[in-house]
Amino acid sequence: MRKEILNLVNEYYTEKIKEHGATPKGVDWNGEESQVMRFAQLSKVLEDNSDKFSLLDFGCGYGGMIDYLEGAFGEAVKYFGFDISEEMILSAKDKYGEKGTFFSNINNDLKYDYTVASGIFNVRQKIDDANWEEYVFETLNLINSKSSKGFSFNMLTSYSDKEFMKSHLYYASPEKIFAYCKSHFSGKVALLHDYPLYEFTIVVKK
Q1: How confident is the model at residue 102 (pLDDT cuts 50, 70, 90)?
Q2: What pLDDT, in 10s, does the model give residues 144-189?
């Protein structure tokens, strides 16, 4: 099932980047303002960090987070971007090739100080809730294994207004995701659900 899901995700986002190019819409976000807001929430895993650090952007798209990280952390961050869509990686290399390292295959031997993941759990398409949830937890375990100091990710919230919810998207229970991270990854977990988007962010520090 995981292989089927990854193929669907690859096809979906490859089509988006081809249609919209290296823009927020190219990674299926509404616009730049909401994208920057998400980056700010995800970056809270980095707040206590004062040294140079490596960061894996898991599901990096065209690498749009690089601009935010540069503004917030300058040269302190060594950026690595992973995406399963080759088309995304090509766009990222074309736009930010001198500012980061991009790849479409995970090296099992490499770890990073931090990992961030934005929007990778939202678009389930035709996959049912049970299989998608299993995929989410498998992916979180992978992200945890790649992260030495911590990681953060966001998900659409089950507290979204019902009339605006879409069947091809996955809306997670914030409490359930928080509990999973707290019991499996670290005692230092934060649930951020106080910003004006229909989503939440989890921050895990080790």
Answers
A1: very high
A2: 999 999 999 999 999 999 999 999 999 999 999 999 999 999 999 9
The span from the CA of 116 to the CA of 81, in Å, is 10
pLDDT score at 18: 67
Closest CA to 88 of 104, 67, 105: 104
3-class secondary structure for the chain?
CHHHHHHHHHHHHHHHHHHHCCCHHHHCCCCHHHHHHHHHHHHHHHCCCCCCEEEEEECCCCCCHHHHHHHHHHHHEEEEEECCCHHHHHHHHHHHCCCCEEECCCCCCCCEEEEEECCCCCECCCCCHHHHHHHHHHHHHHHHHCEEEEEEEEEEECCCCHHHCCCCECEECHHHHHHHHHHHCCCEEEEECCCCCCEEEEEEEC
pTM: 0.92
